[in-house]
Amino acid sequence: MNFDYADHAIKDMNRRAARAFNGLRTMKFDELNVLRSVSKVYDELVKRAKKWFLLIARDAYAAALMEAGFTEKKAEQKAEDDITEDWVLDMLEDYDGVAMYKFETEVERKKQRTAEAILATETDRNRQIDKSLRLWVQQVAQFADNAVTYATIDGYIEAGVKHVRWHSQEDSKVCPECDELDGKVFSMDDIPDRPHFRCRCWLTIEKG
Asked: What is the model's pTM?
């Protein structure tokens, strides 16, 4: 399970988000325009995020199949066939137990709160925009990581994998929960949920 491609995607989404939110700093300050501008920013960022989530998931799914013995060509074709836009929408409909929200529901909440915060104080607009940007960056990073995790597990299931081994980073930053899980073997029906925000533990196929 490799998060490198997800990290690349997250950096791109962060750059685009920074530009989009910066555009709110100079918008005309009236209620209707603020509501429209904020909604447009989030809508465009969500559209971009969904495209990245699809690519991240396909990359992870193909990698899982190749780990299980598929050729690169076959794995990539299977990923294109199996990991669709509907797969992404289903992922975003799942409740994230760590973030404690569904993706789309949280987007709508963020839209409303960002607009309300900006309208509440024109002189403090930039601080409110910076806060909204940080929260958006956290949200897309969490779901980009989810795309890796869920697609990897789906790839293992498609390949007929029965058991996987959990790996932590084994460094000083590992949390107690992940440290406890490190090295343990789980059946595909019994893989623990990620214990904290942006957990970067990974799974490998347990053979034999």
From this structure: 0.95
